[in-house]
Design a protein that fits this description.
Blueprint lengths: L8 H14 L3 H47 L5
């Protein structure tokens, strides 16, 4: 697919600089930047999901312990 990207002069200078620095074509730099950006978004989503799972697991365990304590109230072994 061919696409056109309009850049302001600052971004154009950055792109040209990166292209020279890494000895890559500008299109290659743009493709890698898009790929990097997409992976970063995916990693953030995964991290938020893992945090939610950890939080839920922790809360579930707390509820379990409270229930276990309430079941043991008044009973002697």
């Amino acid at each position: 697919m061919v696409t056109t990207v309009r850049l302001d002069s600052e971004l154009e200078a950055i792109l040209n600089s990166l292209s020279k620095q890494f000895e890559k074509k500008r299109g290659e730099i743009i493709r890698e930047a898009i790929s990097f950006y997409a992976k970063a978004i995916e990693n953030r989503k995964k991290n938020r999901l893992h945090q939610a799972i950890e939080k839920t697991t922790s809360k579930d365990y707390e509820e379990y312990k409270l229930l276990e304590e309430s079941l043991n109230d008044g009973f002697t072994k």
